[in-house]
Amino acid sequence: MSNSLNPARQGSANNPLFAFTYYKPRNVDLNTYINNNINPVSGGALGSTDRNRYDPYGIGSFAYGLQNDNRVQKENNLLANIDVNIKILPWLSGLVRTNTNFYNIAYERKNRGAGIAFAGGDYEIFQNTNKSYRVQGLLNASKQLSSDFELNASIGAETYQKNLNNSAFYNRSVTNGGLKIPDVYSISNSLNPATTTAYPNFGERTDAVYVYGDITWKNMLTLNFSGRNDWSSALTYRDGHGNYSYIYPSVGLSWIFTELPVFQNNSILSFGKLRASYSYTGLSARPQQTNTDGYFKLQDGTFNNANGGNQSVYGFSDNILKNDDFKNELDKEFEIGTNLGFFKNRLNFDVAYYKKNSYNQILSFALPQESGVTSQALNSGNIQNQGVEVLITGKPIESRDFNWNASVTFTRNRNKIISLAPGVENYDLDLAFGNDITSVARVGEQYGSLITGYGYSYYQKKDASGNPIASPSNGKKVLGNTGYGTTGGYYTFVRSQDYDGTRKNLGTMMENYLASTRQELSYKDFSLSFQIDAKNWRFNGIWNSSIWIS
Questions:
Q1: CB 3.0-4.6 Å disulfide test: which of 53, 86, 289, 407 passes with 94?
Q2: Do the beta carbons of residue 479 and residue 493 sit within 8 Å?
Q3: Measured distance CA(475)–CA(465) in Å, rounded
Q4: What is the enclosing helix (H) or strand (E) of 421?
Q5: Span 190-230, pLDDT tens digits
Q6: pLDDT tens-digit readout, 351-398
Q7: Is the confidence at residue 65, as pLDDT, over 90?
Q8: CB 550 within 8 A of CB 544
Q9: What are phi and psi of 17, to 5 degrees?
Q10: Which of 17-31, 201-215, 369-383, 420-434 tops mean pLDDT?
């Protein structure tokens, strides 16, 4: 159970740290406005009347919102499980496990009116509930097959069910147009008819059977294996068809070569292991996506046809074109690595290289407006991630009273969009700074390329045919007025998209590398530990790094 009051606002001007450091002038006494943010004449926020006099920088009105827009969120989470273990034979056992997860959020917002005499304001309440449970059965075998071979294997089945039979709901009510009576917080005090939204949360069910285990030879060569078959309701259509059954296997091999006689009693190399694996991982669709998107149905409203008659309107639900053949998303990953221990394992290295390709991701693509729909979700894409992971651990000092343990990690990932959908080269992911910067997936580039048309434009003189020619002004930033408001009506540096329509690639939101170190020191009953984390990006040729110490 948790209870949070007024969590920090997120996003641009709503976040206090961002607003006070980025949007507000440095030469203003912030406390003067923060502590006196109610208009002394008209009430409401400091800038509700005569803003140029009382709140020229908007700081008081911002502080008013922070202090008078109060939000409370209560979360209740019940987790429970029961395990029953059964000993069948000395080498064979059974397990029956069931668990449940009940999660509820209750939210209330009281937003005091910021207008004259505290006019306006909002009151909002909502609740969201989710319920799930899992039942699992396993048979586990652990048997010494011979003096050289040992087998550990499990076979099992399970069912996972969430929000079935309309057992979980979302409901939200919010006032509309302000409050009739200021500071009276109830839905019935809404100036205009309040808005209420309520619906059952989408249910889903996944059934599965699986097998996994390993076979070891002479405690040094181990073959790992697994296989799983899922049946997902999220890939099942109303009429019962669908690609709802999918299998994903994996296999791995590891060799502890220091078990060989030649490495016994080696004073330098204490442990050595080589490993390799190849795996498939399946992922289903969004719950009920196959049964909500794109169904042709009667819409609200009518229109007059050519004969003057009243005609009903039919269309696709949510203006989405239905996909009648969704498949599961699929990851394929290969990894090789080694574990090495030196000097009685006081110095250890764990190094791995991986390559992972993600296929059949379910993405929504925009369609031409004249088609009568706005988008269609498709299985698409091949996104590749490959890189290295390094973990170094050591014990520089080890004694009876004083010990020093250290670890260093380094990760470098290289991401590339191999393909999207047929005929699609770009896919917008997200926006930042309003619409200033767009994060996109572009074929042939890294995931999350940062594209903007708000960068400087640079002059290039051209001849009558549009060909570049020499000029002493070439390469200089362009000053001007676009004439339609984007430069505020005065001369300033012109954005590249306003000058020649170009948009620039600033780099990628993906890190160039991640690194961290953790140090632990202890002396008798006293201990001290700290951790340093670092990230590194490269934007438009400029290296950017961030370091955190905890």
A1: 86
A2: yes
A3: 20
A4: none
A5: 999 999 999 889 899 999 999 999 999 999 999 999 999 99
A6: 999 999 999 988 888 877 777 777 888 888 899 999 999 999 999 998
A7: no
A8: no
A9: -60, -45
A10: 201-215
pTM recorded for the entire structure? 0.79
As given in the structure block, the two tokens for residue 233 are 């309701």
Cα gap 417→361, rounded to integer Å: 12
Query: CA separation (Å) from 73 to 70, 79, 112, 121, 443?
Result: 10, 20, 18, 19, 42
Buried b (16+ CB within 10 A) or exposed e, 351-370: ebebebbbbbbbbeeeeeee
Q: Are strands 320-321 and 375-398 parallel, antiparallel or unpaired?
A: parallel
Asked if residue 125 lies in contact with residue 190, where contact means CB atoms within 8 angstroms, the answer is: no
Residues 6+ apart with CB under 8 A from 268: 342, 343
Using an 8 Å Cβ cutoff, are 277 and 252 in contact?
Answer: yes
Token pair of 142 as six digits: 């652990």
503 within 8 A of 451, measured Cβ to Cβ: yes
| Contacts for 464 with CB less than 8 Å, ≥ 6 apart | none
How many Cα atoms within 13 Å fall on the side-chain side of residue 26? 2
Q: Report whether pLDDT(544) > 70.
A: no
Nearest partner of 507 among 545, 543, 476, 550, judged by Cα: 543
Q: Which of 155, 148, 141, 147 is nearest to 222 (CA)?
A: 148
C-alpha closest to that of 53 among 65, 67, 41, 63: 41
CB distance 18 to 10 below 8 Å: no
* DSSP at 462: B
Place of tokens 């004083």: 402
pLDDT at 547 over 80: no
CB contact at 8 A, 312 and 298: yes
Q: What six digits make up the tokens of 518? A: 């953790």
CB-based contact 485:495 (threshold 8 Å): no
| Six-digit token string for 158 | 């399970």
pLDDT (0 to 100) of residue 440: 85
The owner of tokens 């209740």 is 76
Measured from the Cβ of residue 436, the count of other Cβ atoms closer than 10 Å reads 12
Question: What is the separation of C-alpha 89 from the centre of its chain, rounded to a whole number of angstroms?
Answer: 46
The alpha-helical segments, DSSP class H, found in 412-480 are none
Biggest alpha carbon–alpha carbon distance for the chain: 98
Supply the pLDDT for residue 315: 60
Supply the DSSP string of 331-349, one letter for each residue: EEEEEEEEEEEETTTTEEE
